[in-house]
Amino acid sequence: VQTCALPILFFNRNLLGAATAAAGLTSIALIWTWRRRRLVVMPAAGLVFAMSIGRRTDSITPLIAVGMSVLAGAFCVLWVRASDEKRRHLRYLPPAAIITGLVAFLFRDTVTGWFGRSPSMTGRTGVWYDIVDAWSRRPVHGFGFMAAWFDPELRAALRARGRNLWEAHNGYLEVLVGGGLIAVVALGFLAWFVIAALRRSLSARSPHAPWFVAAVMFVAMVNLGETNIAANRLPWLILVAVSVQARWSARSLDDR
After folding, report:
1. Of 47, 44, 1, nearest to 20 (Cα)?
2. Which of 83, 126, 154, 181 is the most exposed place for a label (fewest CB within 10 A)?
3. Pair 73, 214: CB distance under 8 Å
4. Which of 5, 21, 10 is nearest to 215 (CA)?
């Protein structure tokens, strides 16, 4: 299914992979929450179903995103339970993870070989170069929502690569080419709101903080390889909903 009647949703093979990965992550969380109840059968069945559908999509991006979200959630569990002395050591883990990710991208020829993938990330990097080139012609305000994909120069560049794409396979580049620097600034304000909400939830030692961070990490990571911000607004709504819930949860703990 390529599209549906509602403009708020967009599904193709890769985005279905992201949706099933998110469903699997939710099932794992429910299994952990309900592990002493008979209802555990329901999320367990959901996990099996999500893994079965996700395997058929052959999309590795959501799997990487789930892995990173699990690591982020585990880090938050340690952070919430750690003493101030241990936190001084834990604070070095996020920068180390970012550096590791950058190194992996620089040496992606080797890393992608481990997963049996091409260094171009199935042609994504070439498309990204074309998108940045198109954005350079309208750097401030961009082309408008989805309008860049009707630009003759961009379509010619994509045809030269043998690609007939209508999305960037990167949510952040989709925002850049669609709204230019204005949209990047707006996205920056949203990122500030999300980070502030997560920090407040962690500072309040909310028991839900690891789940909030894991969900946001999933959305942030899956947009590196798929367009889950612009063309598909389902993860976008999840991101906003989790951020609002994180702020509310932290505020309710502060009021106690």
Report:
1. 47
2. 83
3. yes
4. 21
Q: Are 215 and 69 in contact (CB under 8 A)?
A: yes
Query: How many angstroms separate the CA atoms of 56 and 3, rounded?
Result: 19
Q: Which amino acid is at 36?
A: R
**Residue (of 167, 126, 172) closest to 148 by Cα position:** 167
pLDDT in tens, the chain (256 residues): 334 444 444 555 656 666 676 677 667 666 666 655 556 666 666 667 666 666 666 667 777 777 788 888 888 888 878 888 888 888 888 888 888 888 877 777 777 777 677 666 677 888 889 999 999 999 999 998 788 889 999 999 888 888 877 778 888 898 899 889 998 998 888 888 888 888 888 887 777 788 888 888 888 888 888 776 655 555 666 666 666 666 666 566 555 5
